[in-house]
What we know:
About 50% of the residues lie in helices and about 30% in strands. The chain is α+β, with helices and mostly antiparallel strands. β1 and β2 (about 100-105) form a beta hairpin.
Amino acid sequence: MKATAxxxxxxxxxxxxxxxxxxxxxxxxxxxxxxxxxxVADRQAQRDARQTPYAAPGYGSISTAAAAxxxxxxxxxxxxxxxxxxxxxxxxxxxxxxxxVEGVVGSGDGDIPFVCSVRNGSVSGILLx
Length: 129
């Protein structure tokens, strides 16, 4: 009878262990999981930034000429400085993988022409002349 009680005790221990693990929340495990989650999110954001370094925030994937024109104009204004303004309207022409946008921004230094390319749905480069 003593051996049977020992086996019953061992079986009860094995059955109780997973239940115990599901019920008990250890604070250091919760904190560790939160830290790991933040690290994973930061690394994903870094990977996304490397894949589309010139992506215009708020525009998502650029799929029309008007969106390409607006995104490039915003990038050119940002690079020209806070007191810059768009002179006229930017012109978007079609390329095989996207658009090429040309326009002029005015700043304290005078009028600055710019050329911008949109490839595969994002701004891939901008040049202020």
